[in-house]
């Protein structure tokens, strides 16, 4: 350090001393260089000689001069260079003559000066050694290993330096580090990665490959060790699959080495233990940069689990299809049974409707009221029954609307329904016109899902006409019975079983039996069997159907038996009536005992007269006179007898005619009455047979009226056995009871009102009701209400099983639909995942994958906004690469990983809208910044952040969102984000699908990045980023073939940097690398998309220009030469000097037809450019004219 207080004389003296030392050093170097002396003189501080190298040590001097390490001697105090060899001058890029006398510390990096001083102090104790960095004249940093020793000759200490260049060692260490990185990637890779040399031997293998394929793969022949069977391609067609299947095609590594890559091909590998593993094969050739190394890389992705999942899914599909088929068959069988039941029920109903007009006229009123008697349902039957329209009835109180004079009775029925659940009976009500109608009403209680009563349903049938018709039938029957009882003759009806069904009062007087005693007993009790059979022979059994036969035979005499056992003569006439229900015989019998007695008297008188005549004739034989007298008397008696006989016969004939006429009149009247009776009996029989044989419960209710004649209720008058089963009560205990006493459980469901309206309007109705009365069998009833003349008829069908079957069928259909939908969704998701994996496997780069990612992801979540975010290489930012929906308005496009809970936690993060405080920052911070921006632009004071639950419109929007990290090999590659402004959009299935999609994408991106790294290393030059020589050779043949097919020109430019060795010698390798890098940048900037720029080797570069003419090639080459010449490269603020290029041009097909020939032509043109002085462009075959 210079002392500022020194005098000028002292300073001048120091300058003189330094100049003297410099002159001595120069003279020494000159003498050594010219060989004038055989001794090496080293000057000390005082200029005296301190060390002499004798001629005998010339060999040692030669060794020092030519050694690869740098050697120098320096002063120990001022570190001036007293001596250095050529190697040291080369390291610091300074001429040897300019080094002597300079301060060695000028070439030491400022950061290492302290270390150098420490080494100098350590050398005083022995020797000092360390690594440090020298700075050459051009600013290049040179890592060196420095060793310093102190020599003492004649009392003068000098420092001897040995400097070793560590640049190559550092470069080797970088290569080793890169190798370690590659090895680490192979160790951590999830796929089986295998690298083979040009002979197909395995030189590298990932740990996954070692684990799956074998214990030791290195240096083994790939084809001998790993047998991969190529499986048929899914989209290859039937013929290709059949061919590969029959030939069992085996994968060969040689085809890949020869340039035939595989992408996404399925293969099968069978391990030694017999386990089968499915792989997805991707294989591509590669070459090592700056060498002729050839080989290939094989990536095997284990898809065994995916195959197993596909097989499992297929099996589940088949099982589900079987279950669906079985369930479908069950449903079809159930539907068939239901249809059969419906058809049977419809047939039964049709029969009932055909046989009874009462059932055809079913049109009842259905009314629903709440617990306050307000009407909330009113059907058309109710409108016809009561005369009130739906608009007039709905919402009004039923008691007030119908003007019921005694609502207490209805309130009692209502309470009974609330207690028991239902009620049925007859009511007398008044319609809108003031007419009284008798209705049969059924009330049922309706409850909610919790069992609380909410409404009362009423089914009212108008039975006014039915009651009137019943009364008319009764009156007609009474009239007919009176007429029959007026007849003196016996009138008896007999059925086909010869049982007595009718026995009038005349028959009671004749036979002595009462009607109750003889009905249903055989007719043979009244008449002899012989005479009855004799009479029936005139009446054949086979008669035309539905034909009325009158006067089948004349009166026949038979013998009758009285109750007391006496016999009497009688005349019998039999008429036959043939009906659908059977044949009925009507017997007319007359007691002829009196007539028989008269006839017997006459016969006895005749017999007595004949006896007397005979006696008299015998007396005449003795006396003529007496004979004549007797004859005269006889004649007189005969005349008297004849007159008596004639008179008797006239009287008998007259009486007989009178009786015959009376009997015929009675017979005709009886037949007519019998027709009416039989019609009534047949109608009743048909009706009884229909209701008794019906599978449904039948109730016949008669109207019940108060003292004023107003219908107030219905009384049960008849019911069938099914009705007993339905109500779980005996018929005898229910007949005669009122509607509210019979149907006590469901009395408050408005039955009476509906029945009354149906009764009044004469329109029946049908409905299905759910009942809750435990005494009524069945939970669902189908009720048909038919109004009668003086009551109503109810038909109740238990449809519980049908309802349960319908509910079961509906539930089964819903389950089946849900299963099918789930299966279709799973199949769709699996198909989309497979399609996405195929596309990503087929992508050549991550950028290409990002471009298709939007179209691939949107089908997974069509109703949800989403985006894909990928982490940058620096890992400090995450940026959006794909988006769909409105995510851009919800999330940031670029954000820090710390802004996402999923990336920080390493697991999925779902936030529903109700917990918006857990939203990721990248979701709402965009709106937050907008709020702050609006506040900053305002002239007012910036307000405080809004309080919770009081956010302004521009503050973060409360949305639900899902963030799923994409993690592969323990490294977070990015993020899949789903967001929605509506709550409940992101379901559990959507979250599961998002996780699966993120895993597939992470695995695919990791594979792509690894493939890009390997491919980049195989085809790119690491220093310039241009393509390497191997890629050049492959591309050149391809471009020549394309140019030959399409008939266009192809240009080749060979480029060489002039005097490139000087850059390395002068500025070191770093300076040369800067020149190469800047030239590579210019070439990349000046090429088109179809052009190919390559580093051919060393400082030589090549351009392939397809579809171009020679003129444009010349222009392009000249443009590159001029632009490079204008460069001013610097290294550590030191100019590297001007860069010039020599360029050679050759054209296809003019200068060659093959890649080798065209390259040779361009290389020849390049050497011609160098011979002509460099910095120029030469074209092959043009007299080597150049363009400068």
Automatic annotation (TrEMBL):
Q: Check the record and name the SMART domains matching this protein.
A: GAF (SM00065), GGDEF (SM00267), PAC (SM00086), PAS (SM00091)
Provide the top EC class.
transferase
Which residue numbers delimit the PAS domain?
Answer: 178-214, 357-421, 476-521
Q: Which GO annotations describe the biological process of this protein?
A: regulation of DNA-templated transcription
Listed Pfam families: GAF_2, GGDEF, PAS, PAS_4, PAS_9
Q: What is its EC number?
A: 2.7.7.65
Q: Which organism is it from?
A: Planktothrix rubescens CCAP 1459/22
Q: Which residues form the PAC domain?
A: 263-315, 421-475, 554-604
- This protein's UniProt keywords: Coiled coil, Nucleotidyltransferase, Transferase
Provide the GGDEF domain boundaries. 1048-1182
Protein name as it appears in the record: Diguanylate cyclase
Entry's CDD domains?
GGDEF, PAS
Recall the taxonomic lineage recorded for the source organism.
Bacteria, Bacillati, Cyanobacteriota, Cyanophyceae, Oscillatoriophycideae
| Any one GO MF annotation of this record | diguanylate cyclase activity
Transmembrane intervals: none
